[in-house]
Amino acid sequence: MTLLCPFFITFYSQGFWKKIDTYREQPDVSFKHKMLLLLETQSPDELIFWSTYEQLNQVMNHELLQTMPSVEHREEDHNRDGKKDELKMTIDVPLSKKKVVSVKLLLIFDYKLYFYSDFSMECAAYMQYSTSLPGSSFSTFGELSLMQRQPLRHAGKDVRYNIPVIDFSEPGNPPTSFENILLGYMRRNVTTSLKNTYSIWETGHAANGSFKINLVILYPEETILYPLRDGVGKHQFA
């Protein structure tokens, strides 16, 4: 019986036929200077839209912000390892007398991993907040987290998801709304999402008539799912 115990432990822990394993890696993330912003006001018919995509701006022309917002951002590498650790961003939107009650913001990133497969994708961070009280600023802090419904490849190049988040070539489903964009993105098996978020909504109206958005997004080390080579797995003996 003593000799059989290690066998049963290994069997029930899937040690003989383990097909998926994990490893830790900090991704190489870069903000692509692409974004969509939608502000909703107390008047349901008065939406404020702005993006870095000219095709979207043409479609949303009747809601397009006439004065371009001021956007300041920087990415920081705190431990000097060559990979950025966080994004800090401030967006200042000129509004005159409009009262903002909702924010929707989509930021686009490059996301790369190197340890096993050479993985790269275009990904997104989406944030939104709504309230009945008009605000002068919105601040949010969170982590850009990897979401996997399937493991990454264990070797070679993996560019399955290195395609535009906002894809104007997709037939029959043009990216003319946040709903269409997010639905298409959510259907991928590998994405990113903003997690562990903390948000602050400042009520009132700014003295200069603008609405300010403050962001800090961390790029944390991730636990990555990957298939063991040839699906055979590790033969583990205690």
TrEMBL record:
GO biological process: cilium assembly; regulation of protein localization
Keywords associated with the record: Cell membrane, Cell projection, Cilium, Glycoprotein, Membrane, Transmembrane, Transmembrane helix
Membrane topology value: Multi-pass membrane protein
Subcellular location per the Swiss-Prot or TrEMBL entry: Cell projection, Cilium membrane
A Pfam match: TM231
Taxonomic superkingdom: Eukaryota
GO cellular component term, pick one: ciliary transition zone
InterPro entries tied to this protein: TMEM231 (IPR019306)
Residue spans crossing the bilayer: none
Presence of the UniProt keyword Glycoprotein in the record: yes
Job of this protein: Transmembrane component of the tectonic-like complex, a complex localized at the transition zone of primary cilia and acting as a barrier that prevents diffusion of transmembrane proteins between the cilia and plasma membranes. Required for ciliogenesis and sonic hedgehog/SHH signaling.
Cited PANTHER family: CHST5 PROTEIN, TRANSMEMBRANE PROTEIN 231
Family: Belongs to the TMEM231 family.
Name recorded for this polypeptide: Transmembrane protein 231
Gene symbol of the encoding locus: TMEM231
